[in-house]
Design goal:
Elements: H1 4-19, E1 26-29, H2 33-42, E2 47-50, H3 52-63, H4 70-81, H5 88-109, E3 112-115, E4 120-123, H6 126-138, H7 156-171, H8 177-192
Parallel strand pairs: 1-2
Antiparallel strand pairs: 3-4
Helix pairs in contact: 1-2, 3-4, 3-6, 4-5, 4-6
Length: 195
C-alpha cells in the first residue's frame, strides 16, 4: 500500500521536472512504493536503478547483525555482498547463489502459523520473509549500472549533496517559502556551474 499523499507530491515533483524539460536517463532510488508508483506514472520508460546500499542496510536492519537461524545468516551474508558486484560474472554468481539459497530455504521462509485470536495466518519468520521479498522484488532493477557506468548504484552521493543543502537552509530557517524556493534555485545553479 502506498502513502497516497506522498505519492501525489512525488508525482507532482516529477511532472514539474518534465514540464521544465529535464531529460532523465535513469533514476536511482531507495524503492519507496510511492516513489516507484510516481516514476511509473510520469516517466514510464526511464530506467529505475534500486539503491544497493539501501537494500543492504534494510536487509541488515530486518535480519539484525547477528541472526540466530542459519538460513538468516546465509541471507545476511548474501545481502552484504550486494554492493561489491561490479561485473556481470559477479552478478550472475550472486544471483545463482541467491537462487540456490532460496530453493533450499523456501519452506522455512514461507512457514506460517495460525493465530487463534485473529483467525489469521502469519509468517513464523516474518523478518526473514520480509527481507527475502525485498531482495527478490528489487532484482529486476538492481543491475542497470552494469550496462551504463553513468547510472549510480547508490544514492549516497545525492544524499550527501542534499545534506549540505539542508545545512545551508537551516542557517536561513526564517526565510519565507518563496525566498526558500529562490535560495534552492540559486544554490543548485551555483553548484551546477561549479561555483
Amino acid at each position: 500500500m502506498t502513502d497516497q499523499e506522498r505519492y501525489e507530491q512525488m508525482r507532482e515533483d516529477l511532472e514539474n521536472l518534465k514540464i521544465l524539460g529535464v531529460d532523465i536517463a535513469s533514476i536511482t532510488c531507495d524503492g519507496h512504493k510511492a516513489l516507484l508508483k510516481a516514476i511509473r506514472k510520469v516517466y514510464p520508460h526511464v530506467l529505475t536503478q534500486r539503491c544497493l546500499v539501501h537494500i543492504k542496510r534494510q536487509s541488515q536492519t530486518w535480519l539484525t547483525m547477528c541472526p540466530k537461524a542459519p538460513v538468516a545468516q546465509e541471507l545476511l551474508y548474501l545481502s552484504k555482498r550486494i554492493t561489491y558486484l561490479k561485473t556481470y560474472e559477479q552478478c550472475n554468481q550472486w544471483l545463482a547463489d541467491l537462487y540456490y539459497w532460496y530453493e533450499r530455504s523456501k519452506v522455512y521462509i514461507n512457514e506460517k502459523a495460525f493465530n487463534q485470536d485473529t483467525g489469521r495466518y502469519w509468517y513464523r519468520h516474518k523478518m526473514l520473509h520480509q527481507t527475502t521479498s525485498l531482495i527478490i522484488k528489487a532484482i529486476p532493477n538492481m543491475f542497470h549500472y552494469l550496462d551504463d557506468p553513468q547510472i549510480p548504484y547508490t544514492t549516497n552521493r545525492l544524499e550527501s549533496f542534499f545534506g549540505h543543502l539542508k545545512e545551508k537552509l537551516e542557517i536561513h530557517r526564517g526565510l519565507r517559502p518563496q525566498a526558500k524556493r529562490n535560495f534552492v534555485k540559486w544554490y543548485l545553479h551555483f553548484k551546477n556551474n561549479g561555483k
